[in-house]
């Protein structure tokens, strides 16, 4: 498989009596992600009796089922059929593009990362300085520009409630890669913008973590009380397939947006958009520019 082709047949593994795990590919890629999403969508539309939960992930998915209603081998046969029937037209989706503000190099993640330097590959620098250096950027500012300039796909939501994993929408040689901490921290501020492997993430709540810390967003992404308007339907904001554009902001703008969050009138820039994997693969940079025009309404 390469970045422009779909993976060959998936690997199917039963997990106990009620779960079927399907690994699309051992390697993360947009084609692998789209293939998994397309099968999950087709399975949902077929409404197979006995299927109780469908959980898409980065390059895999998990199906939970009731074996008293649908036999394991029958479900397996349905999934194999759905996979073999996929075509290029299935590699598109109606989704949304969202702008998420980020205060890079903020004081709260800086204080936290300094408390855990003994667990880091490079105790003499900050996380973002380390990431910039090993990805061969001349400066942290250049690294932030690379991180924030192109959109990202939400390829999975989980690990803790509401935490999105995001995959950078650029040619693979340009993708940022950073290892996780040597051993996990016991603390990470909520709404930290993190990075591990090829994935960015946003820590939805305060807690332990091992991803590098680059900044914080003022935007809540998990709210059981559903106070803000964009939590109207769900307490978890992100969904697999969302497209995210980071927007660097300064401390004054961060404080202004936090005041809006506390007042309950905070909102995000969100626009509906159609996405075609085929068209994106043909010209990633040109396609991204069209996506940003949709986001900004021009």
Automatic annotation (TrEMBL):
InterPro entries: CT_C_D, Cyclophilin-like_dom_sf, PxpB. Keywords: ATP-binding, Hydrolase, Nucleotide-binding. Residues 10-231 form the Carboxyltransferase domain. GO terms for molecular function: ATP binding; hydrolase activity. It comes from the Bacteria. This is Allophanate hydrolase. It comes from Hydrogenophaga crassostreae.
């Amino acid at each position: 498989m390469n970045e422009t082709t779909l993976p060959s047949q998936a690997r199917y593994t039963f997990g106990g009596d009620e779960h079927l795990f399907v690994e699309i590919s051992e390697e993360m890629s947009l084609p692998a992600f789209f293939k998994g999403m397309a099968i999950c969508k087709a399975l949902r539309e077929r409404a197979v009796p006995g299927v109780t939960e469908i959980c898409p992930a980065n390059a895999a998915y998990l199906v939970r089922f009731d074996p008293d209603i649908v036999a394991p081998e029958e479900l397996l046969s349905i999934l194999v059929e759905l996979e073999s029937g996929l075509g290029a037209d299935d590699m598109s989706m109606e989704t949304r593009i969202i702008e998420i503000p980020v205060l890079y190099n903020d004081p709260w993640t800086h204080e936290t990362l300094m408390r855990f330097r003994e667990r880091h590959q490079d105790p003499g620098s900050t996380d973002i300085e380390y990431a910039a250096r090993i990805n061969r950027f001349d400066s942290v500012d250049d690294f932030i520009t690379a991180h924030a300039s192109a959109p990202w796909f939400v390829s999975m939501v989980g690990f803790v409630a509401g935490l999105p994993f995001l995959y950078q929408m650029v040619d693979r040689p340009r993708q940022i890669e950073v290892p996780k901490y040597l051993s996990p921290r016991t603390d990470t501020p909520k709404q930290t913008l993190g990075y591990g492997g090829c994935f960015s993430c946003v820590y939805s709540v305060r807690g332990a973590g091992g991803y590098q810390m680059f900044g914080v967003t003022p935007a809540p992404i998990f709210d059981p009380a559903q106070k803000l308007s964009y939590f109207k339907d769900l307490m978890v904001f992100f969904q697999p397939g969302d497209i995210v554009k980071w927007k660097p902001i300064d401390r004054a703008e961060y404080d202004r947006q936090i005041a809006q969050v506390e007042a309950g009138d905070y909102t995000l820039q969100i626009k509906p958009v159609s996405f075609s994997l085929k068209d994106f693969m043909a010209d990633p940079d040109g396609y991204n520019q069209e996506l940003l025009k949709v986001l900004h309404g021009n």
